[in-house]
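thread: overnight batch results

M.L. [08:02]
morning all. the overnight job finished for the chain we discussed friday. pasting input first so we're all looking at the same thing
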Amino acid sequence: MIKTETFREIALSMPHAEEKPHFDKTSFRVKGKIFATLNTERNLATIKLNAVDQNVFSTVNTGIIYPVPNKWGQQGWTHIELGKVKKNTLVDALTTSYYETVKPSR
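M.L. [08:03]
and the structure it wrote out:
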């Protein structure tokens, strides 16, 4: 089980990452763009992935990592159940989200 403080530490370990409020959640940003949010009440993180990475993480980790069930999910936003995910999987998914967010736009 990953605690919200552990998630926060991992997210803020990314270069130039910063924590800011985002409605009723906490967001983690780089270059002003959100790469993750944290809902402490639900022990749920949400990250931004491209379609291929979302499919891979969701398929391998069914019921633990899954697309947000609406149009946001179709745009790559993906939930992570912190009470169920393994730390190494969380680090991989969060790192993927971070680097997807900082890569230059085409």
